[in-house]
Write a sequence for this structure.
């Protein structure tokens, strides 16, 4: 919402400076977005007197002028044909930026004669295209007057952001009312005089809505003004409209725009000669069309409300008129419409047709119903003043609704909700200035709501009115009571898990990324997604269409982007939500990461101490296990199964499960086909840890740990090598060995793998080191041999292998 | 005796002449070994008469001791010299660069870091951290927040929608963290003190907007909390978060459907020399919106507005991260550019705490 300071002064008598007005507007809820004074760009240009204009000695078309600038007398070489002795022009001194040409003036010599500054034309000022000569001002214009003042341009334009609850502030009169209530002057808005008119309006209006649709257009007022002369508006009106960014069209149209901004009262004018028959306000018929005033053709659905005559649709109710019935220079009889349109229906129509207009903007927020007829009278008076003509009586179809309502008000409520201690008198004064009338006393007050405030319904709304006008600065700051004692931990299990996962992965050398929650459909499908229920209906682009079923597509794409930029060894991770459906429980928290190139946890790239190899499945497995360990998962009891799932390399990936079924994590080399789908290349490995899959830890009665059971006796190690079939997994051998004597065996590690023809086709040798920890006495050779035999037996039984 | 002296000087010169440990060892064996010259002399004591033995015994034993000592000294010398020689060859170039360690390489994203900072501050004030789903329904994202259908505020939010269902409803991506307020109030009885950080979505993508960003919502509901408390909470938060001693705040009236009265809040800053400093200077910087919870919101959550009251605020996490840590461009937060992440990210062990300071 834009307006100029002088326009505001039509409604507000104030001594306040522009700065005070701007500050106050922002504080009371009318946030100032910009203040622009056209005079500022012209401040260097002032009225000057041409004392002498003599022919240039070396050029026929140039003159040498002696100019009195009011502070100085300077010599200027000028090429304008109208430069003459005694004239009053506009002078720009050296150093000035000339807006029309974009040049900065410098002292110069023109054909051998010194020239300081310039006498300017309107085009050079950026004011018009006029360049036949320099600006020629009346002789009595005082020397030194700023040009902006001479031209009446010293009028700052203020733009405020009006929040949707305040339609009344979409009229300048409403803004003035707020400022006056806030102590910045008094309201001097003049109320329009009622105009009787002669004879009935010759065009009838019928509102064609059944009972439940009556609200779509409760009232439609109209009158004819006969015998008008339409043409350009007077300068003052054109200047005001131009200042706020509107294009003057002709007087009749400009008047409607003027009143729209002046009073938040959108109007429409029909050229009566172009209207055929009577007007009907009705639902559109499917497929009806209108070429509207913005030059676009709109096709309607029955939910749209239109004004039609015998030609068909002539106007979109509350939104925009039609080209065909609009007013132009030939208009002699004008129908002025002042109607009321439903907020919701106007918004829906505007959205559906994708049409923006000042009328739509106002009707979807709410227009003062009580000003329907006064607005029509105001427009009539302006039409008669600017275009002449003879008005008819007002025709009113429907009924002006009476929104009269009153709200109970307890002054103490202000203190309760805001802490602000105000006297009831101050509250009633503020409410009164805003148009709210109060009656009653103490806790029994009632406040009647003015017709232009559709946003006020209950006590809290009045508290807001009082608070915003008083200013929150006056609200005392009060400490929020704190609980006695030390603050308690507040993070939930899930939140702590996400935090631990993050810090663990960062400590392992991965870099945290935050990638989009929506990914391309193809990527989603490659990771088990693509469910229609979670595909966006209005995505930003096809690259951001599907809610991600996994964090990996985003991370893989990100890793590849970095690789394409020359950073091919990198490790990225993310902790965040993935989506399997549209219910709250379908969103899971996951920690996932990718490693690319040689970005191993121990460092990547070439190095004097040994060049890192490509990342492999065990790098990803280590990441997953470290996260699980950090989250307190029972790492020793987890199972690892071959094959991580569809998007992993089948032979080089795995699952980490709790029991046989609960999948806690996946890890491995990415499937070459998946990488190809994502336009990525490897080597790339990945892991996903499902933070929500971990069971809730059991509550422990105490934080104490079990006593340390460290033996003074030396641990003993024994090595075994087993030759097993191709399908036997190392994990089976380790588990069998561990289980052979749970009390004595404290560790089993795999220290050698070997496969060769000597072992037989497909067979392999797995060598393990078993650590035995004696507890109460040193083990005898016989005891050690007995344990060894148990280990061999257990492994052979579990794997079908043999001791090598 | 003269023989003994000759033998001694002989052996001692051999000891001195031994260049390495094997040479010295053969000198030792030749003198003190089983068949060594001195051992032979000792053996000969048995065949001597007592008188001879009295003189020769101490002489030979003395010889043995001196030779033994000389060998030991010489061995120590040789070992010392050996060590010196070895050390002289064992030099490496310690200026050779290390491999980047995992701790050095890893980073925490600024959004996560700032969330941890928020947690540290608000946990101290007794707030818990609440969360909610990103895919929301109309009730939680709009209706319960006093934004009825056709309200212009809905259009300003640029909502992402999912396909319409058979019953006409459609799910959406939450446009703010405010639905978490609703979920919390529906699930938990007052008093309530929560902050709700998380991802939010709006269908807008340009220089200063991304279709996904992060907000943090705060909510206090009890039977007394009012605007004055809100001012205090926000002032304390700003001082703690921006790690400054004082910050001036300006509250401007505004409008949000879910609060009344509503305000936008500016903090003072200086922009001298293109460097933003919070809590200094006379410029204003908008950082958040807030207000007293609207009675309709309380009603939607089955709370009686005559009994319960409170306040709420919301701000952009990415935005306050940019203000504090100086990132110029919001879009870079989500582009996963390694250079950006390395530059603006935080070390794994930089855990924000009130005791140790939020940042280093």
């Amino acid at each position: 919402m834009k307006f100029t300071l002088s326009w505001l002064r039509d409604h507000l008598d104030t001594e306040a400076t522009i700065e005070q007005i701007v500050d106050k507007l922002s504080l009371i809820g009318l946030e100032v977005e910009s203040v622009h004074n056209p005079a500022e760009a012209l401040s260097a240009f002032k009225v000057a007197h041409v004392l002498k204009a003599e022919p240039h000695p070396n050029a026929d078309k140039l003159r040498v002028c002696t100019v009195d600038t009011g502070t100085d007398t300077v010599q200027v070489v000028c090429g304008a044909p109208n430069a003459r002795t005694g004239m009053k022009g506009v002078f720009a001194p050296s150093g000035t930026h000339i807006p029309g040409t974009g040049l900065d003036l410098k002292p110069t010599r023109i054909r051998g004669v010194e020239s300081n500054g310039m006498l300017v034309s309107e085009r050079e000022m950026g004011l018009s295209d006029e360049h036949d000569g320099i600006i020629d001002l009346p002789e009595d214009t005082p020397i030194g007057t700023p040009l902006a003042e001479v031209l009446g341009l010293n009028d700052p334009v203020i733009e405020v952001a009006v929040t949707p609850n305040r339609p009344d502030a979409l009229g300048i009169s409403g803004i003035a009312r707020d400022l006056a209530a806030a102590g910045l002057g008094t309201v001097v808005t003049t109320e329009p005089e009622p105009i009787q008119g002669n004879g009935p309006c010759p065009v009838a209006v019928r509102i064609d809505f059944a009972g439940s649709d009556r609200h779509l257009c409760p009232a439609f007022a109209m009158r004819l003004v006969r015998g008008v002369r339409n043409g350009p508006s007077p300068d003052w009106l054109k200047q005001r409209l131009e200042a706020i960014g509107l294009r003057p069209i002709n007087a009749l149209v400009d008047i409607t725009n003027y009143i729209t901004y002046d009073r938040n009262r959108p109007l429409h004018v029909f050229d009566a000669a172009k209207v055929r028959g009577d007007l009907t306000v009705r639902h559109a018929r499917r497929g009806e069309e209108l070429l509207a005033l913005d030059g676009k053709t709109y096709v309607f659905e029955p939910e749209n409300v239109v004004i039609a005559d015998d030609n068909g649709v002539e106007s979109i109710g509350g939104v925009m008129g039609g080209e065909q019935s609009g007013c132009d220079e030939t208009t002699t009889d004008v129908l002025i419409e002042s109607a009321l349109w439903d907020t919701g229906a106007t918004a829906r129509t505007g959205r559906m047709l994708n049409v923006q207009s000042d009328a739509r903007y106002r009707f979807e927020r709410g227009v003062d119903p009580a000003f329907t007829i006064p607005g029509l009278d105001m427009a009539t008076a302006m039409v008669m003043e600017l275009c002449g003509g003879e008005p008819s009586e007002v025709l009113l179809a429907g009924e002006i609704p009476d929104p009269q309502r009153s709200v109970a008000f307890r002054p103490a409520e202000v203190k309760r909700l805001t802490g602000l201690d105000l006297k009831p008198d101050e509250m009633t004064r503020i409410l009164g200035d805003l148009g709210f009338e109060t009656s009653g006393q103490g806790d029994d007050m009632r406040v009647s709501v003015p017709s232009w405030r559709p946003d006020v319904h209950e006590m809290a709304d009045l508290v807001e009115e009082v608070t915003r006008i008083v200013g929150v600065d006056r609200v005392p700051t009060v400490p929020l009571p704190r609980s006695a004692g030390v603050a308690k931990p507040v993070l939930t299990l899930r939140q702590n898990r996400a935090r631990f996962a993050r810090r663990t992965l960062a400590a392992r050398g991965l870099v945290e990324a935050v990638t989009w929650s929506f990914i391309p459909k193809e990527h989603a499908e490659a990771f088990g997604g693509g469910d229609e229920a979670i595909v966006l209906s209005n995505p930003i682009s096809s690259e951001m269409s599907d809610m991600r079923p996994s964090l990996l597509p985003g991370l893989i794409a990100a890793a590849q982007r970095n690789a394409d930029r020359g950073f091919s060894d990198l490790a990225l991770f993310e902790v965040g939500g993935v989506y399997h459906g549209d219910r709250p429980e379908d969103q899971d928290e996951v920690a996932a990461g990718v490693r690319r190139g040689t970005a191993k946890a121990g460092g990547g790239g070439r190095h004097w101490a040994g060049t890192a190899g490509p990342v492999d499945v065990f790098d990803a497995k280590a990441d997953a296990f470290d996260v699980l360990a950090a989250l307190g998962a029972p790492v020793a009891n987890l199972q690892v199964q071959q094959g991580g799932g569809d998007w992993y390399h089948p032979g080089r990936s795995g699952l980490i499960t709790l029991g046989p079924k609960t999948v806690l994590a996946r890890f491995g080399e990415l499937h070459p086909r998946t990488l190809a789908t994502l336009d990525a290349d490897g080597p790339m490995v990945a892991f996903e840890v499902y933070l929500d899959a971990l069971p809730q830890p059991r509550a422990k009665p105490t934080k104490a740990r079990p006593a340390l059971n460290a033996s003074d006796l030396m641990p003993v190690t024994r090595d075994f090598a087993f030759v097993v079939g191709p399908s036997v997994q190392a994990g089976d051998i380790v588990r069998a060995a561990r289980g052979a004597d749970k009390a004595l065996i404290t560790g089993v590690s795999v220290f050698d793998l070997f496969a060769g023809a000597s072992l037989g086709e497909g067979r392999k040798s797995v060598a393990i080191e078993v650590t035995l920890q004696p507890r109460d006495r040193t083990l005898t050779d016989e005891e050690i041999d007995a344990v060894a035999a148990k280990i061999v037996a257990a492994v052979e039984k579990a794997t079908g292998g043999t001791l090598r | 005796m003269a023989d003994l002296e000759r033998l001694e000087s002989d052996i001692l010169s051999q000891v001195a002449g031994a260049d390495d440990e094997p040479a010295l060892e053969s000198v030792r064996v030749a003198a003190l070994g089983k068949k060594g010259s001195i051992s032979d002399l000792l053996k000969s004591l048995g065949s001597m008469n007592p008188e001879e033995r009295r003189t020769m015994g101490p002489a030979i034993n003395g010889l043995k001791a001196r030779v033994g000592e000389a060998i030991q000294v010489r061995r120590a010398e040789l070992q010392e010299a050996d060590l010196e020689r070895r050390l002289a060859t064992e030099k490496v170039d310690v200026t050779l660069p290390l491999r980047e360690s995992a701790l050095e390489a890893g980073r925490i994203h600024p959004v996560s870091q700032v969330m941890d900072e928020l947690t540290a501050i608000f946990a101290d004030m007794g707030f818990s951290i609440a969360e909610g789903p990103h895919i929301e329904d109309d009730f939680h994202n709009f209706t319960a927040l006093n934004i009825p259908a056709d309200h212009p505020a809905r259009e300003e939010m640029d909502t992402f929608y999912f396909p319409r269902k058979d019953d006409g409803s459609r799910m959406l991506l939450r446009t703010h963290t405010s639905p978490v307020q609703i979920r919390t109030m529906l699930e938990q009885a007052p008093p309530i003190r929560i902050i709700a950080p998380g991802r939010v979505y709006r269908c807008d993508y340009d220089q200063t907007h991304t279709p996904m960003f992060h907000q943090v919502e705060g909510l206090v509901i009890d039977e007394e909390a009012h605007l004055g408390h809100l001012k205090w909470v926000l002032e304390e938060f700003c001082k703690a978060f921006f790690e400054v001693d004082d910050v001036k705040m300006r509250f401007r009236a505004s409008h949000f459907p879910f609060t009344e009265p509503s305000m936008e809040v500016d903090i003072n800053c200086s922009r001298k020399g293109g460097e933003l400093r919070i809590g200094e200077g006379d410029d204003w910087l908008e950082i958040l919106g807030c207000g007293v919870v609207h009675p309709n919101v309380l009603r939607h959550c089955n709370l009686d507005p005559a009994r319960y009251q409170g306040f709420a605020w919301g701000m952009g996490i990415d935005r306050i991260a940019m203000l504090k840590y100086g990132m110029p461009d919001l879009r870079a937060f989500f582009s996963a550019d390694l250079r950006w992440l390395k530059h603006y990210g935080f070390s794994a062990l930089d855990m924000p705490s009130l005791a140790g300071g939020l940042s280093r």
Remarks:
- Residues 50-89 of chain B form the longest helix (40 residues).
- Chain B touches chain A through 91 residues (CB under 8 Å).
- The beta strands of chain B are 128-129, 135-136, 172-173, 192-201, 212-222, 249-256, 259-270, 277-278, 283-293, 309-316.
